[in-house]
């Protein structure tokens, strides 16, 4: 392939994602969080001393470990010189304090546990030797026969020992039991915890809840069957007290050591995977405080704790679990485990959220994938279905799941999706996926039977992103008792589905409002005068309107095509450019102000007699029509051929010869292999598919491709559809448009 074409293709592939519609990039809370994270990282790096440490009275080792933790958690690479120097310092030094030794273990877990096992085990030995008979800790790592304790040091010791266990260290019998007894015994009557035997505070209440969880007392444990749970009373009481404390808003956080309290709050939110506590969005509360509250004192601990809070909670929303009006949450931790497994394998921080779908600005709009499951009869309101249509049009993936293989849920989900989601689609049906589906290929290569999914097929390419899992994966993800092989299958399917969804629609950050937009087929045709005022011309260097013809079918398929082509053309001055897309009725005189008309779709299109007569007049007087079968639809193909038989009854479509200028200018398509989907390659190999046309007086006036060249330009093509990949589709389209606009 000539070097110039290779460079052009690289540029096109880089530009295409930027050409799709995006949310306004105005200053936002999410943007402010990202900026603050960068500022804190820079400030921490600058504060490091020449020996690799960070200074804090009596706690140089602890402060250094905390800074290393914060930098690594916020995305700084382990091989960054600042991180390496900090790790070297804490490996070689100890200040014999419980805070410090606990944080050393946590930092080395992130920095490379296998490499630093000796130092981790040394810290564990110090912590074990300083636990008192009541199961608690105080400041020094020396023996503590007197029983002195405080819940702050105790929570950090629990954090460190839990990290050590994740690093492969086995704790002696009794350590966990004594610590657990301490936290149960020290819980106040109001459900909270104090620093010692004192009134409950927000920070120490968080410490108690998080410590119980790390010591093996989660909020919920599985009951006798799916959907049944047993709730831990101490944890539930602690959360009730914390919810009451948070009712004070920012004021509750600002009392005492604010950043320390926020880090404690973050541990509860992250460990228990809670988005809200008693109705309070804890991450938003903390982020708003850190961004608009009192300025940090500038000490290492404050900066590191603030960075830990902001970084851990800033992951984008990759999944939403639909809170439909039924048994929507039989598996309470399924989506949490789903994003955790997928995020770890994909190397991304990802988050999830439960959400209702009645509004286009629902939090679920930010997600790439929406999961809905249950045992009972599924139902959806008109507002929820409107949201789903907009979500799927935006690129999102909807996955329904028959929990425990429920036939009741499966049958009712199929009925709603095929009869009400796209009411204009008369052929909607669920069909088994094959091995070419992204659910089988996105990350792991799986057999279709291992995925166990049905795909919704209708007359629209975007509508393929609705799946029904008939083999349950949520129960395994939720931690129910299944075989190792079944758990591995469930996790592989989960990773594939979310990897695919992330390719189709970007996960949005969690704080800013994000609203979906519906595609409207309203009559927004520009008048002839409006078109003239945009500067329409007839030469290559002037802007041109691209006229999308309305027809009796899904004429708005590939709605962003003109925006994609316009973005590409701005980088290549010799390519045709368009003012924008003009949606025109075939019966309107507006046709005659468009140098090029475009028609596509999946349905059997049709025009009324006045419309195809007007189209005939347009074509016989210098007009040009480009048509394409979206998803290589045979229904569109048949309908388009029938339309031409009416419009141009004395003409016939003929193959455009391989030596025709359309194939060679401005880009030599025929000198390069065609890139297509797996199904395309089965049919055509690396050859170019058919390109047909109608010619008058030696010039093509109609060009038609029965092979799709548009969908992949919008990141919307699956391997089971016959179609060109973007690098070939872009070449072909630009050549055809250049031909049409060149005298």
Q: Can I get a quick summary?
A:
This protein has 743 residues and is α/β, with parallel strands linked by helices.
Count all strands and give the number: 16
Q: Biggest sheet, in brief?
A: 7 strands, mixed
Shape: elongated
- Average pLDDT number: 87
Radius of gyration: 31 Å
Domain module count: 3
The helix content is: 40-55%
Query: Would you identify the CATH architecture of the largest domain?
Result: Alpha/alpha barrel
Helix-strand makeup class? alpha/beta
Count of discrete alpha- or pi-helical segments spanning 4 or more residues: 27
What is the CATH C-level name of the largest domain?
Mainly Alpha
Please explain how this structure is put together:
This protein is 44% helix and 11% strand. By secondary structure, the chain is α/β, with parallel strands linked by helices. The chain has three domains: 26-312, Glycosyltransferase (Alpha/alpha barrel); 317-504, Domain of unknown function DUF4159 (Rossmann fold); 528-741, Domain of unknown function DUF4159 (Rossmann fold, 3-Layer(aba) Sandwich). A hairpin with an 8-residue loop joins strand 8 (453-457) and strand 9. Helix 5 (98-112) runs antiparallel to helix 6. The longest helix has 21 residues, at 484-504. It is elongated and about 105 Å long. The protein starts with a helix and ends with a helix. Mean pLDDT is 87; it is low at 1-5, 15-26 and 520-542.
